[in-house]
Amino acid sequence: MLITSSSNERVKHARRVREGRERELIFVEGDRLVAECLSSGLNLHACFTSHSPSTTQLSLLERVACPVLQLSDSVLGSLSDTTSTQGIIVIAERPFPSVESLFEGSSPLVLGLDRVQDPGNLGTLVRTAEAAGVNGLFSFAGSADAFAPKTLRSSMGSAFRLPIMPDVSGLGVIETCRSRGLKTVVATGEAVLNHYDYDWRQPTLLILGNEGRGASAEIMNACDVRVRIPLHEPVESLNVASAGAAILFEALRQRRM
């Protein structure tokens, strides 16, 4: 059946998910993200499309008993989170990993984000963290939602695989990591120690702060170590996603030696 009204109850529910008003569910849009979502094994509630899904997608959707609802172009366009609809949207259950999954292995590397508010930055950091072999990510209270549509597009599917604990207490995370034998490290331009002089082979929690203000004073004071990225003048700072990439890939380099 073709749905031609944006007042349809299923469409209205999907819109609430898109706006973050259904916290147990996430809004996934576009062929690539939907494919990543399917391959990650998330529980799906509905699929909205203006055309028939690909044979592979349709087979997977049928296998997980996900209803496929066809919308008119105008209704799908009104539901889309992008300027130009990408043709397919699924509603899936938000992943809720266990805390234990962030500390697997003999020398875990964990990322903490203190009030990183730009969804694009946060999504890029999720993608970078997975690429650099990070165990998982703690997103402190005040940060963007790691599963908001724009953040998901920036993470390009990594959020479906990397364990993420959202909206947590930064000080609580520091204590939890310290109790498990992790060093707590915060990045700041005011540090003396260069990021490549820290031994990233040891169990570590790395904390990156807010785009404009950096990590809060209470987080800075609670950490064991402060590191900086040396920059050529007159550049004084990097975008938080760029800084995170520089530090995390240095950590990966050391861990592969």
Secondary-structure blueprint:
Layout: E1 2-3, H1 9-18, E2 25-29, H2 31-39, E3 44-49, H3 55-63, E4 68-71, H4 73-79, E5 88-93, E6 109-113, H5 119-131, E7 136-140, H6 149-155, H7 158-161, E8 164-168, H8 170-179, E9 183-187, E10 193-194, E11 204-208, H9 217-222, E12 225-228, H10 240-256
Parallel strand pairs: 1-4, 3-4, 6-7, 6-11, 7-8, 9-11, 9-12, 10-12
Antiparallel strand pairs: 2-5, 3-5
Helix content: 25-40%
Q: What integer is the average pLDDT? A: 95
Unreliable runs: none
The domain count comes to 2
Structure description:
It is elongated and about 65 Å long. The protein is built from ten helices and twelve strands. The strands form two sheets. The chain has a seven-stranded parallel beta sheet with strand order 8-7-6-11-9-12-10, sandwiched between helices. With 257 residues, it is of the alpha/beta class. The protein folds into two domains: 2-93, 60s Ribosomal Protein L30, Chain: A, CATH 3.30.1330.30; 99-256, SPOUT methyltransferase, trefoil knot domain (Alpha/beta knot), CATH 3.40.1280.10. α5 packs parallel to α6 and α5 (119-131) packs parallel to α10 (240-256). The termini are far apart. It has helices spanning 9-18, 31-39, 55-63, 73-79, 119-131, 149-155, 158-161, 170-179, 217-222, 240-256; strands spanning 2-3, 25-29, 44-49, 68-71, 88-93, 109-113, 136-140, 164-168, 183-187, 193-194, 204-208, 225-228.
A few lines on this structure:
By secondary structure, this protein is of the alpha/beta class.
